[in-house]
Amino acid sequence: MTEAYKIIDHTYDTVVVGAGGSGLRATMGSAEAGLRTACITKVFPTRSHTVAAQGGIAASLCNNTPDHWTWHMYDTVKGSDWLGDQDAIEYMVREAPAAVYELEHAGVPFSRNADGTIYQRPFGGHMQNMGEGPPVQRTCAAADRTGHAMLHALYQQSLKYAADFYIEYFAVDLIMETGADGVPECRGVIAICMEDGSVHRFRSQSVVLATGGYGRAYFSATSAHTCTGDGGGMVLRAGLPLQDLEFVQFHPTGIYGAGVLITEGARGEGGYLTNSEGERFMERYAPSAKDLASRDVVSRSMAMEMREGRGVGANGDHIFLHLDHIDPKVLAERLPGITESGKIFAGVDLTRQPLPVTPTVHYNMGGIPCNYHGQVVTKVGDDPEVIVGGLYAVGEAACVSVHGANRLGSNSLIDLVVFGRATGLHLKETVKAGAAQKPLPKDSADLALGRIDHYRNAKGGSSTAEIRLDMQHTMQKHAAVFRDSALLSEGVERMAKVNKRLEDVEISDRSMIWNTDLIETLELDNLMSQAVCTMVSAEARKESRGAHAHEDFPNRDDANWMKHTASWFDGWGGKGGKVTLDYRPVHDYTLTDEVEYIKPKARVY
Fold this sequence. Notes:
By secondary structure, the chain is of the alpha/beta class.
């Protein structure tokens, strides 16, 4: 196989896969530490999906209202429905203010208050006084284009340090080896240069996966079409587990029909939702937080309104979001992007008319299990914290787990920079620049080349697009905002059949040069394994917690289910497909004694 595909070899101290917010921050940290660093990315860095983040980045700066990091910690734990690891959450909220000031100094053009401080807006689930309220203004914003501003600043900073960028390279598989203690360790990664089809083997002391979520496993998602969970797919094929995949966040306000995101910042600035009868129904479901309740709560409330016949439109399948009462000057200054999106995607003038919205898949709380240093962990025997040597994960691809069963709005951008930075710091402490690396195993490229060759010559009867659509519709129907036992068990069977269809895939382009047909099929393979694991993990969890709303088990069950799901997936390309489940304990301890463990209680807003 290696004869047919010429391999170009590279050696680095650190290889980062992905150039979104977390990947760039890790690249920057590694390069700054003097480590020889490569960043492999399938799209140009400023096209990474972080660019689409609108609302802002959470940090307790206290610029607009009183605030404290312990309040932010409480809200994050409550938002996670007590499935978040409290040591990692403490690390994130304590580091948050410094991380935001670092971004400000790097040139992020935050919106300003009259006194020149960074403007902060209210966001769902963020409260003062350990959840007692009133709402806190904690979300630092650059109008409604915060991710865009951040990504550009981080890319500029990465260029300042001498990192090598491999742009429009698609990472295919990890190079793994069994260590002396029998635990797998990562030795590098294989990637294709999409421009000319050349295959590149990156040998490295450490690999950081910053590949984003797998939102495109669903039919209607706010994610870019590039969000295909490539890191998660590579980890599953390496025989390692993913964690908590059943927790998929639906954002309450995707534009009806287009799925384009309307930031929660719109409600933070005073927007509100109404049903077909014109009533502000959130007061029924979350009497104190109302439209600024947590995302899973608002999404389910909207779904209930539609289910009970109070949805808007001929089919009663959406809800109205009102911003038409807000001063047009305020809209132009603080929400210019969504005002434009409303015009383009819904033909609505937000200053005069309400916007049709519906809950849309937005974020994966689950991902590659890791600790707050970014080190990937697996479960071996009874030990749930076995570190996989040389492998790190950051951002939406990772599950630290600071978001638990439901992520609070504006906590994802702070997650990116805090843990991207933490990974850089850990690499600085543990990796010796230019250290000799032992030779790679003889079969290091076999898995990747075998898959490339298999798909490039696939002559089945179904196109990649047909199989992908089948998967997306199945996920949308069987693992939606509300789930029940019948839907989920049928979903497990359906997904097993959809996965099998990959054996019958057909590719028409046999070349290696800009073969988008091949790349999309490799992406579908990554999506498929995670979609199957999501369905099986959801079917197994007999409770409702955060984004996993199981109608046959409407209550949270801490006695049996306060634990992380770990799912292993066997095979690829439609072969195998068996999912093995196990569980890891939730960290019920904090990082320091400056804050006490936040005990579980009922989650009401």
